[in-house]
Amino acid sequence: xxxxxxxxxxxxxxxxxxxxxxxxxxxxxxxxxSGLYRDLFPNLMLLLDQAVDVSKIDTNAxxxxxxxxxxxxxxxxxxxVAPLKRSGLRQCGCSACRREPTVRT
Length: 105
Fold this sequence. Notes:
single chain; two-stranded antiparallel ribbon
């Protein structure tokens, strides 16, 4: 993943680095933002979310993101979690207005 810059040097999104240019296997990472980071930089949280969405475009069999999403869905299904709640699960955080975790689906 790399940032897409505008003419003024501001990040306007992210783009997938082509496999031929990357020259290594892709990796899946976990980002755990602190409350301060999460609360003061929502624009950066949106870029992280966009990076996950863009990563899903790479449908190669060795894409660890897609593999891990499939494994998480299977595990949640085995636990009886409703299909809508388990679709696309990747980003979790705590809501400012309640103490239970919120999940982006």
